[in-house]
Structures are given as C-alpha cells and as structure tokens.
Amino acid sequence: MEQLVYKKPDSIRDDFRITFCPGCDHGVAVKLVAEVLDELGVRENTIGIASVGCSVFSYDFFNIDIVEAPHGRSLAVATGVKRSKPDKVVFTYQGDGDLASIGIGETIHAMTRGEKVTAICINNTTYGMTGGQAGPTTLIGQVTTTTTKGRKVEISGYPLKVAEVLKEIDGTAFVARVTLDSPQAIMNAKKCIKKAFEAQLKGLGTGFVEILATCPTNWKMTPQQAHARVRGEMSEVFRPGIYKDKVSEAK
Amino acid sequence: MKKEKELLKGNYAIAQAAIQAGCQSYFGYPITPQSEIGEYLSEKMPENGRVFVAAESEVAAINMLLGAGSTGVKAMTSSSSCAVALMQEGLSFIAGDEIPCVLVSVMRGGPGLGYIYPSQGDYYQATKGGGNGDYKIVTFAPSSVQECVDLTYKCFYVSQKYRTPVCLLADGMLGQMMEPAVVGEYPYEEIDQSSWALDGAKDREPRYIASIEREQETLRKRVVKIFEKYNQILENENLFEKYEIDGAKLVITAFGSIARIAKAAVKMARKKGLKVGLFRPIMLNPFPEKIVAEIAQKVDGILDIELNCGQMLQDIKASIAGVASIPVEFFGRPAGMMMTVEEIYEQIEIAYKKIVEKKYGTACI
Ligand SMILES: Cc1ncc(C[n+]2csc(CCOP(=O)(O)OP(=O)(O)O)c2C)c(N)n1
Ligand code: SF4
Ligand SMILES: [Mg+2]
Description:
The complex is a heterodimer.
Chain A: H1 25-40, E1 46-50, E2 65-68, H2 74-84, E3 89-95, H3 96-102, H4 104-112, E4 118-123, H5 153-156, H6 162-167, E5 172-179, H7 183-201, E6 206-212, H8 216-219, H9 223-237, E7 241-245, H10 246-250
Parallel strand pairs in A: 1-2, 1-3, 3-4, 4-6, 5-6
Antiparallel strand pairs in A: 5-7
Chain B: E1 6-9, H1 10-21, E2 25-28, H2 35-47, E3 51-54, H3 58-69, E4 75-79, H4 81-85, H5 88-97, E5 101-109, E6 115-118, H6 123-127, E7 138-140, H7 145-162, E8 165-171, H8 172-176, E9 178-181, E10 208-209, H9 216-237, E11 240-243, E12 250-253, H10 256-271, E13 276-281, E14 283-285, H11 289-298, E15 301-306, H12 312-320, E16 328-332, H13 341-355
Parallel strand pairs in B: 2-3, 2-4, 4-5, 5-8, 7-8, 12-13, 12-15, 15-16
Antiparallel strand pairs in B: 1-9, 5-6, 7-14, 11-13
Helix pairs in contact in B: 1-2, 1-7, 3-5, 10-13, 11-12
Iron/sulfur cluster (SF4) binds at residues 20-21, 24, 26, 54, 124, 128-129, 215-218 of chain A.
C-alpha cells in the first residue's frame, strides 16, 4: 500500500524551479509560506509581492499571482494592492536588505498605517544576491565583502533589531522572530507565519515575521555550520520569540 | 446630465476630472504648486468609496501606484518637479511592467528646490525621464483649465487602453489659475483589464507582473513590443493645435501655458501683417516629429518659445534634421517669470526680420 509521506503544497508550482543555493533557508521559508496559504485556503485569493534580492524569482515557485516591487518598496506596492483590492490576501516576501535597509521607510510607514498585509523578512545578515556585502543587520565582527576585517561599531554602528523596532508600531498586530534550524523551530516558524496571515485576515493590522535564515554561500559555511551560527551568535543578538500577538488576544 | 461651466482652479479641475474618470486609488505627498489635488481628493475619494492614501514620500507614492495599477484599477498620483524626480525608478518599473496609471506633474522652477513659480523646466524630466532603460512616459500638456479636465480624461483612457503610464504635464500657472471650465462626463469607453490584472489565481494560471527577465531574447522582444505600442499611441492618440499655419513664413512652436500667450502674440503679429503661425504639440511624448517636419518644409523658419533654457527645442531640431534646413530660433526663460504677450511679440518681430525679411543685426535672446 502506498503511503503519502509528503505532498507539495498547491501554492507551489508543479514546475517550480529552485533558484536558491543548496542549503539556503530561503527554500524552507518559501515552502512554509506556501503551506500556510494552502492551510488557510487563500491561495486563489492571494497577491504576493516579490522583492529584489534572492527572492526576486518568487514566481518561479509560488503558484499565485505576483507583482514585483523595486528594491525596498514591497510594502508600498502591497499598500497599493491591498487598498485597491481590500478583499485580497496580500503579502510581501523580503530580504533584510530590502525590508530593513533601503526599504525601512516603507516598512515603518506601511505598518504605522496598519496596512492589513503580511510581511515576511528573511534576515540573513547580508545582501545575499549581490554577493554578501554588509548591511544594517550585519553582526558586529561579521566578515563580509565590505567588512573584510569584520563589522566595526566605529565605522558602521550596530545591527538593526527589526522585530524590536516594529513591535513598537501601533499598527502591527503580530510580530515574531523565528529560526529554521531544527524541525521544532520550523514548526514554530510556520505557526508564526500563519498568525501573521491571521492578523490581516482578521483585520487587526500588519502581521510580521522575521526569519533568521542562513546564507551558506556568502557566509562561506556548510549548511550545518550556518545553522549553528543562527542558533549561536545570531540568536544572541536577534532574540527569537513572539514580540506582539494581538491575534491570540483577539481570540 | 448637462454640466454648467464654473470658475475652477487648474488643480481642482484635475482632481474633479480624476473623480469623473473613475479614478479608484490616489496616492500622494504634498508639494506646491499642486497640493490642492491631494487635499481635494483626501475628502472626495473616501466620500465616493474610493482610496486616498497620504504616502510617506513620493518614492512610496509611485510604488503604491505600481501596486494599485497592477490590479487593473484606475490609479493616479500627482506631484511636482523635485518630487517627481523621486519617482523615476518607480516609473521605469511601471513602464517595463506595462502597468496603466496616471502621473500628474505640475512643474515648478528648478533645479533643486527652485521655487514655486511656473516653469517648463521638467519637459526633459517628463519626456526623457530619469528612470533606467528603454521606455517612454506618454505625456500630454494642457494649456487651459478646460484642457486640464479633458486631458486628465485622455490620460486615464490612454493609460488603460495601452497599459502604460501616462503623464499630465501642467505647470504652476495652470495649477493655480482660475478659469471657467466644465467637468463633464468621462467621454471614453471603459477598457476591460481582466485579461491581465492581478486578482488571485482562481480557476486560472497564476499571473506575474515583473520587469526582471533572465532570457536575453525575451527581454529584447519585450522592449521592442513596448516601443511598438508607443508608435501606435502616436498614430492613434496624437493631439496638437495648429493656428494660422497655412501660408505662414515663420512658425512659433510652444507647449502648455506659454503656448497660450504665444498664440495671443501670433494674433498680434497677424494683425500687423506678419505671416506667422503657431504649432502647439499637446502630446509631447512620443513627440510628433512628422508633423513638425511637414511644417518645417513649408516655412522659412521656426521660433521655439519655452519657459526653460531650451528643452522641447531639441525635439524640434531633431524632427527637422535632414528634412528642412531652416533656422530654428529660440526664446526661453528659465524658472521664475512668465512672458508677456508683448515680450513674445517683440521676439517674433526680431525673428521675422532676421529669417523672413533677411534683415540681420538683431539676435534673439
Ligand atoms: C535600488 C537598487 N539598489 C541596489 C540594487 C542591487 N541589489 C539587488 S538585491 C540587493 C540586496 C538584497 O539583499 P536582501 O534584501 O537582504 O536579500 P537577500 O538576497 O539577502 O535575500 C541589492 C543591493 C537594486 N536592485 N536596486
Ligand atoms: S546567496 Fe545566500 S541567500 Fe541567496 S540563495 Fe544563495 S545562500 Fe540563499
Ligand atoms: Mg539578506
């Protein structure tokens, strides 16, 4: 007797093409978002915003309507979509450079307006797509192609703690930081992503999940080493947890 | 329902026309001399069950427009000069994505902050753009409050029909000026956007709106297709005004508000027996090169008049290159003061003497 062990979510294309490097957490994150869309039964009513970064080819895997935003502007594009079509489920899938560096203005103001959208941020502490330069989320001491001797506070300041900043904004309804470094962590991440969508479905405000993710290629690590880094120094600076949960409060 | 003429300020005329045209979503950030558009719409859009969002910047506004337009609704933003500069990246994406939407650009003086006085210094900004890649922003320039209304309608229509961003290029004088005008019914057919717009992949394949394209040949073809569209727009949607062109020896070229003043000067010249005509392109981009070339073959010279240092002038010169070897004189004035009818008439006289009567000695300035 055949047993179905794993079924590809409907929200992933049948002919999906993986554009991520081997061992990259982007792939896991995309799958979790797709599973959540399936489970909430909203795939056919969803418009996704693809951002500029390693996630720019989102339409290669997501089996949903997608519009691409210029680098950093995903939450402004999401605002335009959601306001024009308020009955649609709208989400952004952005890198840390996209959401927290070049797009921090759009991020803060979309959330300040309490846009009923969901934002997923893949924080890999670097600009992955352009080859691993330092950005605002790069850790102190982290070696990148623009901090070859490690990020120095005197030169480029401190890592930006995105979830902590966004939880302070009244318009956010759900804010969490998660990791993908173990099966339990992945299950927890999925729960949080689901809540971030429920925040918009219930009309409570913006749902936000920051995913601490690996970039084995630019970190020059094996996937195992990269996950150890997420568990270790990354989680020490960027504390995983649920920072705000109006979804549960509303239940 | 027959609408009466009323005394209207250009900015309000544009805003009212947007409502009449069925604009569903407006996004904007304040800047003089066009802030009344956003102020008016902040009240009227919600009253009509439509969307007004006070964007946090013009960068955000243009990208909200991108998002709204991708759902097929009629969407608009309005801004001016240094703030339109902030929209250029978004405009390039919107053009590449073939997203319909309307940008109202009410020019003020520049460069930089310049000041709020009328200017035509953003002809280049509108028609040549600061965004990257091969694309055009289709541009219409009104010269009266009534045209602010009529061309706002036209902008929505052309944007929806050809799936392209369209710019209404006005200036501070038009925005602030009051004049009788009628905001009548939207005169164009509604264009169905349902074959491409995003609304969720229900019972159909998912749709992707993206400017990124990995395949070189596909990217090339896409750009070629967009440029074929511009040709169609020029062929089908071109608007211009010709005044006293037949038998004219000297033709004045001018657009927007200054073209009106130039027209009054042409009338004055005609009264004094000078064979002078006026050509006013209303669609500035794509530029009506052929028409300018035809005119150039029949006249002794052209005098181009603009409220800048000579921007449309370059398109005029390019249009006639290789077709007619006639002098193209220029009288321009950058940011600040309007020209009077008399001032323009004086320039016409100088150019006429020089070009038509071959009485040299005085130069245009
Ligand atoms: C306005 C603009 N500036 C710079 C770039 C180049 N660029 C493309 S992706 C990227 C960084 C993406 O980093 P991030 O958002 O963290 O995503 P990741 O690739 O790490 O997932 C940059 C700088 C661009 N496309 N547009
Ligand atoms: S560069 Fe880094 S973030 Fe991008 S796909 Fe490769 S591993 Fe993933
Ligand atoms: Mg990154």
